[in-house]
Amino acid sequence: MCFAASSFASAADKYLRFEQGGDTHYGILNGAMIDILAGGLFPMSEKSGRQVALNSVSILPPTQASKVFAVGMNFASHISSQSDAPPPLFLKLPTSLIGHQAPILLPKDATNVHFEGELVLVIGKTAKNVSIEEAPDYIFGVTAGNDLTERSWQGSDLQWMRSKAADGFGPVGPVIATGVDYNNLLLTTRLNGEIVQQENTKNMIHKPSKVLSYLSRYFTLLPGDLIFMGTPGRTQALDNGDVVSVEIDAVGLISNEIQR
Length: 260
Fold this sequence. Notes:
Elements: E1 14-20, E2 23-30, E3 33-37, E4 47-53, E5 58-60, E6 68-71, E7 89-92, E8 97-98, E9 104-105, E10 113-114, E11 117-123, E12 139-146, E13 149-150, H1 151-156, H2 161-165, E14 170-177, E15 186-191, E16 194-200, H3 208-218, E17 226-228, E18 243-248, E19 252-259
Keywords: Hydrolase, Metal-binding
Domain Fumarylacetoacetase-like C-terminal: 67-258
InterPro entries: FAH (IPR051121), Fumarylacetoacetase-like_C (IPR011234), Fumarylacetoacetase_C_sf (IPR036663), Rv2993c-like_N (IPR018833)
């Protein structure tokens, strides 16, 4: 299994949520092992003293998000928006989230589904009316995500709900990386092993602090909530059996297979 600055945790820690034997746990990645936490992440719990092998567990989405926000048109290489305007935003649903190596089970009428590799912010504490300057204090860490999008539905429906938030349309994880400079990370998307998107997050039009601050004017952000930060470059339709991998340097890699 491949895995490639926060005030909440030690620098460079990588946290994950996993299932083994019907039980769900949180842990810290430690090489090929996971140090199991006694409880959850929010608030942070102590290590339990127990370990489990990484290859013996099923990786889950790294948090149980109450809300999943997403930024559109955030890279000029994809679709550009005005930097001095509010960030273009939409919602995904918590039920759209799946973990590393979980199959993407497409609805039968989803015939034009595209990948969108993205950086994803993880909220660490309750945020309301937060300034841009204060915003980094509310970001626990970051993870990798794939904002799958059914382009035909996106163009025909009243809202992007079905095209962006259908079950399985939000692969995210496998770990939350803390202590990384999320404003300067290389993001790479591969389709069946071939690079199809690659760009540095420094080219985001709307930076994480601006997005978090703006959202907090209107919504109470809770620990574990997620913000997909937009995709670079071009996208293309996926076929049955395609494997999409999204890798972010210093963070990790999430990979999932399309199934019909």
